[in-house]
Amino acid sequence: MQVRVLQLVTVLAALVSWEVVARAGWVDPLFVPAPSAVARALLRIGGTAFAGLGDTLGKTAVAYALSVTLGVSAGVVVGSVRLLRDVMSPYVIALYGIPKILVLPWIVLLLGYGTTPAVVYGALHGLFPIMVLVMGAVRDVDRTLVTVARSFGATTWQLYWKVLLPAIVPSVLAGMRLGIMFCLLGVLVVEMFAGVRGMGYVMGSLANGFQAPELFAATGLVSAASIAIVLALDHLNDKLSHWRG
Amino acid sequence: MRVLWLRLGLLAALLAVWEVAGRAANPLLAVPPSAVLPALRDLLLLRSYPELPASLWLTLREIGAAYMLAVAAGLGCGFMLGMHRLVGRVWGPMLAALYAVPAVVWYPSLMLFFGLEAASKIAFGFLLGFFPITLAVLAGVRQVNPQLVTVAHAYGAGAVTVFRRVMLPSMLFTLVGGLRTGLALCVIGVIVGEILGSKAGIGTLINHAYGLLRTADYVALVLVTLVLVVGSDVLASLLERRAQRWTE
After folding, report:
1. Is the pTM of this model over 0.90?
2. CATH class label, A58-198
3. Which chain A residue has its CA at the smallest distance from B11's CA?
């Protein structure tokens, strides 16, 4: 309780001192507008911004669905077959580690401007963290569980469906929480680099137009949306772990 | 041994597929590896981009500045949040929530504020590197067994000794991991910043090659950038191993 109050106080104090500093003219309002100006700007660009946010979140949802499906299935397959895992894991780790931005120009060359490159790049961004986590989880599944299931005559299908998948659920959820951020990041980067719609494009053009209050408002909106998404996923995660016992 | 051969085989197969597909496809869009090699040679001999060394040097300096700022601020904030229980409980979750925002959201504001030159790249690299370092320090401080600190104090150890002999060894592993992640993210931040909008640096060259559809040069520049990325991580991993040896 005390913690919540203090957090609220922190935010309010930051906003008030920012407002005071901006009003007193210690910072150039061209670059750092006061919170009140940002709030007014939010009303002004509300329509555009929400449309852009909807567009961005739509692309993110498709990219996310792709990267979760591909990441989990590839992670399970590569993680559970010993030889495949030994051969592939250095490549997967390397692909996870390298900055994806380096292939972005090429993706844009191939796929052009618009929705497709954003979805592809977002999915590419989210795929590897999920895959790496799932691969690790499958590798670390308790061997005794597998041996016992085998000796009780479980088929390969049952082994995957009844033993492996339930065992990796926590890692899959952790991967999904990480993945959504990567997907959203990827989509926003493409929109800034080669967008014609969406929040990244809106923010990019506001920055180029030196519309600082509107830009701050848009930034706040995207930040709030992504924090809300992550908190919702965390909440879901808690619910699921209660349900699993 | 067999695994190693299979790995190399996989790489060779991928390169072969790339070669065949690249030759068949539009040369503006896809470049086979055989065409990348001459481009790489031209690049390294400074024929295609004579400004390559200057650009690399600028990017390296941006990374260095961003990382130094991130380490200083990250250590400072991390220890402040870790040492004061209440401060940590109030601000720690807020920091974690901010970390959940895709960092690129801040980049247009940084560009507006700091301009197209190096400062906005340094600021963005700093922002990316700051969070993992701070959170690692915070996690590290919480790992330290408070009883050890109490005992050390009781035996008359001063603050510096407690830090050096008790706290640092037990949190070093997490701390160094955070510093390594921070460096990787600083590098990525600077490169992303340069590609999204800049006037100089390796990202500008990449954008230039891409914009003029000089795809072979683009691939060669990406390879050079990868050397920088991998090199920085190898350096960090060497330091990490050194730190681990020191704890043992």
Report:
1. no
2. mainly alpha
3. A91
